């Protein structure tokens, strides 16, 4: 429940830049949307996590339905021709 806040505290303790710590924490949120139509590195990390979840069939932290993940839309991985769908 407090993993995001705990992560921020650990990252700040290691003197990591605030913006980098924020992006690392954002990449843990399946439905994170930064508002831009262009994909960011956070979108790539989220898409990679989705690929891992699909390949491992990990039920402990399931991704929401793939068309709902904004990162996949921005990377055009939610289309019928996508390797993920």
Number of helices: 4
Largest sheet: none
- Global outline: globular
Helical content class: 40-55%
Structural summary, described in words:
Helices cover 48% and strands 0% of the residues. With 85 residues, it is mainly α. Helix 1 runs antiparallel to helix 2 (18-26). The radius of gyration is 14 Å and the shape is globular. The relative contact order is 0.14. The mean pLDDT is 78.
Describe this structure in a few short sentences.
The protein is mostly helical and 85 residues long. Helices cover 48% and strands 0% of the residues.
Topology, element by element:
Blueprint (H helix, E strand, L loop, with lengths): L2 H11 L4 H9 L14 H16 L13 H5 L11
Helix pairs in contact: 1-2
């Amino acid at each position: 429940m407090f993993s995001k806040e705990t992560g921020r505290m650990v990252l700040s303790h290691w003197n990591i830049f605030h913006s980098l710590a924020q992006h690392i924490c954002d990449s843990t949120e399946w439905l994170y949307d930064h508002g831009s139509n262009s994909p960011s590195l956070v979108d790539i990390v989220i898409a990679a996590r989705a690929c891992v979840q699909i390949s491992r069939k990990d039920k402990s932290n399931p991704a929401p339905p793939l068309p709902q993940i904004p990162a996949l839309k921005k990377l055009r991985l939610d289309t019928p021709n996508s390797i993920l769908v």
